[in-house]
Design brief:
Number of helices: 8
Strand content: under 5%
Order of helices and strands: HHHHHHHH
Amino acid sequence: RVGDRAYIGMVLNNLGVLHKERGDLDLAESHFREALKLERSIGDLRHQSQSLLLLAETRLRAGKLEEAKALAQEGLAMYEANSFRDGAVEPFKLLGEILLELSDREGAERALLEEIAMNLERVRIAEQTPDSDFEGRITLSVESDPFEILFMGEYGFASCLSLRGSNAWSAVSNAVDIDK
């Protein structure tokens, strides 16, 4: 069934993210490519864009800058053409990082400014949502318990650590980054 294949693609991306965070870029890339193949076979554009961006990030980490740029541009074009404004990867930030590595400072600045504008729009929308828990404040705290770190996102609305969001694997990845 189509739904099952879409779910399998998401699981493959989840595995890829975990392997990417552990530093096994080859295994991560194989999961992302397999997910992309599945997503293309069923026409799942939203997840295709995410897989392309995750592949781009992996190629960036591997030092394959031109390939990373091409993948990021393809994923970002799909992302923008379909008005996707959610997902685990910050597309303009990723492209900006790649362009900076390629010494394209102007292109990097444009991409990073676009990422900032997109994130400010997300906050504006969250603030105007009547049932939003967004309180417009930032809380800083020190936590050493990994399980508490994992559940930190459950205490507020617009959190990159929220397991209630559409990309729980991103929350796990962010918690792993925090715990390093």
